[in-house]
Amino acid sequence: MKDYDYSFIPADAYTDADRDAITGLWLSVWPDHSREYYGEKMARTAEISGELPAGYPVFRVKDAAVAAALIFPREIRTPRGSLTLMALSGVCVRSDLRGQGLGAGVVRKAFSFVGQGLYRVSLFQTSYRVAPFYESLGCRRVDNPFINSLTPDKADPEALRRSVFWDDVVMIYPAGFDWPAGQIDLCGPAY
Ligand SMILES: CC(C)(COP(=O)(O)OP(=O)(O)OC[C@H]1O[C@@H](n2cnc3c(N)ncnc32)[C@H](O)[C@@H]1OP(=O)(O)O)[C@@H](O)C(=O)NCCC(=O)NCCS
């Protein structure tokens, strides 16, 4: 990891160069969306207010982001009441640099906000293929039914698809967290 510069970029304090670096990496990994789509996602995240950390753990080589993630607070409703958790998304490593610890590095940086006690738990979705990667970092799968009571526009198929988790597996960190059973209201779109 010594070859890479690490920084945590606050969600509301990124430069144009930061935005281009992060959206460029996401676009290279998930090319189905446009640069504008990712730029808008970053702009929306910048509007999330609150005192909890929100932003982008990023490893770079020169100006290029080579590993990144996004974290932000989300208040959900569980059968035991409200819970503010650390949402995690956009975890990725540039394809030519995988398998050398950058993915684990960026996820550990994200989870360090839980380790420091700033967040109690992190919740995220992933694929069957990548779930073992997260398990090796101290996460576990959960099997609650998820809803989003704030589904924005039922006439918009993309908004509906993204309303609740669309990937195969939902996971929490840390594995030992006393996670509630039963239906969870994400109180906002999945991520
Ligand atoms: C998943 C991803 C972030 C992993 O990053 P990486 O830098 O290649 O992973 P690391 O080198 O840090 O690997 C850490 C450990 O996880 C393991 N691992 C990595 N990818 C894995 C996978 N897909 N399945 C199972 N284990 C995996 C590694 O073998 C390594 O184990 P070890 O410490 O015992 O050697 C990267 O492959 C990626 O960007 N994939 C495409 C985007 C994606 O799917 N992101 C996840 C969205 S939830």
From TrEMBL:
Organism expressing this protein natively: Marispirochaeta aestuarii
- Pfam families hit by this protein: Acetyltransf_1
InterPro entries attached here? Acyl_CoA_acyltransferase, GNAT_dom
Task: Give the source's domain of life in one word.
Answer: Bacteria
Gene Ontology terms, MF aspect: acyltransferase activity, transferring groups other than amino-acyl groups
**Name this protein carries in UniProt:** N-acetyltransferase domain-containing protein
Report the residue ranges that make up the N-acetyltransferase domain in this protein.
9-176
